[in-house]
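question for whoever is on the cluster today: can someone run the full assembly for these? two chains, 230 residues total. i dont have access anymore since they changed the login thing
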Amino acid sequence: GAGVSQTPSNKVTEKGKYVELRCDPISGHTALYWYRQSLGQGPEFLIYFQGTGAADDSGLPNDRFFAVRPEGSVSTLKIQRTERGDSAVYLCASSFGANNEQFFGPGTRLTVL
Amino acid sequence: GENVEQHPSTLSVQEGDSAVIKCTYSDSASNYFPWYKQELGKRPQLIIDIRSNVGEKKDQRIAVTLNKTAKHFSLHITETQPEDSAVYFCAASRRGPFCYGNNRLAFGKGNQVVVIP
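^ ran it for u. tokens below:
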């Protein structure tokens, strides 16, 4: 079956703009995670959804970052007033229940000029 | 929060030799330790994981060992092959007993493994 997909694969934007990054988890996976991976670093946790609710958003760096998952499937990560420091690969992962393997998507490479 | 460190940052091995990557963690409540392999430009993929009630786990050429007292765990790759060249990430989490708990992963910085043919 299809794995986790993310769109767009690349996004270039200007400082101060608003961006949305989309994640399509594996069908039936109830848990969804967003991570951010900077160059030469490991993924860093941002937010965790169980179903439609954000069960843990403690990894979001500030209030410019927000994520939703309105129907418990697709999730959108939203970044307002982008800054150059937001440039990174944003990874999404899903799992069937929180106790199972997390499957990662290919990521969205965000570049803020 | 959990802090995971990996050593060495880069490891070069001759094809056929073994590679060992070590990670340490800080949170004694962490009980789940996966290893991910990430090839250049691709997504991380789980290669092996271990829970805190087990000291060692093996899957063909890959093994992971866990020392809870010292709070470190290691990845062992035997008979390395060129396709083993990648960045390897260790991670740790507090995995609860229930399906709906939070399994947020804390990752190390990664190890670049280069297998020389």
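summary bc i know u wont read the tokens: Chain B has a mean pLDDT of 92. The interface with chain A takes residues 4, 34, 36, 42-46, 49, 89, 91, 95-110 of chain B (CB under 8 Å).
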